[in-house]
Amino acid sequence: MQGGGQGLLAGKIVLITGAASGIGAATARAAARDGALVALADRNLDGARALAQEIAQSGATAEALAVDVADRDSVAAMVAGVVDRFGRLDAALNNAGIGSNETGSTGLRTGELDYESWRLMIDVNLTGVWLCMKHELVAMTAGASIVNMASIAGLVGMPMASHYAAAKHGVIGLTKSAAIDYGRAGIRVNAICPGYVETPLIAHSSADKLEAIARKTPIGRLARPEEIADQAVWLMSDRSAYVTGAALAVDGGFTST
Ligand SMILES: NC(=O)c1ccc[n+]([C@@H]2O[C@H](COP(=O)([O-])OP(=O)(O)OC[C@H]3O[C@@H](n4cnc5c(N)ncnc54)[C@H](O)[C@@H]3O)[C@@H](O)[C@H]2O)c1
C-alpha cells in the first residue's frame, strides 16, 4: 500500500463518493498527490476503476468500489469495504449527487415538480449524505474529518430547482448538527458550497445561462473542479484542525452579491 510520505493527507485513508467524475475525480487526484490512500466509490464502477488505475500508475494507492449512496445496504457495504481493505477511515468526501436533469425536472417551478423527481433528489442528495455519514462516523476515530458536498443552493434559493436547494440546505443542517454531535469526539464535519463548476452535472445548461452566471459572478467565470478539490483536501487535512460545522462558499463571490 502506497501512501506518499509527504503532503497534506500523507498516509491518510480517504473515501470519496461520486469519485468517477467532476469534483469527486478532481479531489481523488488531488488527495492522492497529497499523500492519501484513496477509496473511490461511485455507481459508475467502470469510471471509478479507470481513475483508480490512473492514480495507481502515478505511484499512489487507489481502490474502486461500487456504491449507490441512496441504498442503505450498498452504503454499509462501501464503508465496510474500505475498513476491510485499509484497516481504518481517516477522512471522507460525501460528494455523489445529481442535478435536475437526472430527475427529469429541469426548468420546473416548485409546484410543478412531481413526487418521483422530488423523492429521487432527496434520496440521493440528502439521504445519501446522511447514510454515508452514519457508517463513516462509526468507523472513524479522533482526528478524522468528514466533508459534505453542498452547493450555493444550500445557502440561497435556486430558481427552478427547489428540490435540489432543499436537499443542499439539508446537507448544511446535517453538517452543522453532526459537527456539534462529534466535536468532543475529535471528528470534524464541514460542508463545501461550490458555485457553478465545469462538470458534466451542468453540461445540459444552455450556453446563455452559463454566460449569465459567469457575468453575475464577481470573479467573472465558472469554477474548475480542481478549485473545489483543493478546498476539500484542506478540509480533510489536519491543517483545518479548528474548522468544524462550517459551510464554506467556494463560489467566486456569487453569494456575496
Ligand atoms: N457542478 C456544479 O456546478 C456543482 C455546484 C455545486 C455543487 N455541486 C455538487 O458537487 C457534487 C459533484 O457533482 P459534479 O459536478 O462533480 O457532478 P458529476 O456529474 O460530474 O459527478 C457526480 C458523480 O456522482 C455519481 N453519482 C450520482 N448519483 C450517485 C449515486 N446514487 N450513488 C453513487 N454515485 C452517484 C455519478 O456517477 C458521478 O460520477 C454533487 O453533489 C453536486 O450537487 C456541483
Automatic annotation (TrEMBL):
GO molecular function annotations of the record? oxidoreductase activity, acting on the CH-OH group of donors, NAD or NADP as acceptor
Q: Which GO terms describe its biological process?
A: fatty acid elongation
Write down the InterPro entries for this protein, in alphabetical order: NAD(P)-bd_dom_sf, Sc_DH/Rdtase_CS, SDR_fam
Reading the lineage from the top rank, the first entry is Bacteria
Which CDD domains does this entry report, sorted A to Z?
A: SDR_c
Q: Which Pfam families match?
A: adh_short_C2
The record ties this protein, via SUPFAM superfamilies, to:
NAD(P)-binding Rossmann-fold domains
Task: Please report which protein family the annotation says this sequence is part of.
Answer: Belongs to the short-chain dehydrogenases/reductases (SDR) family.
Q: What is this protein called?
A: SDR family oxidoreductase
Species name: Pseudooceanicola pacificus
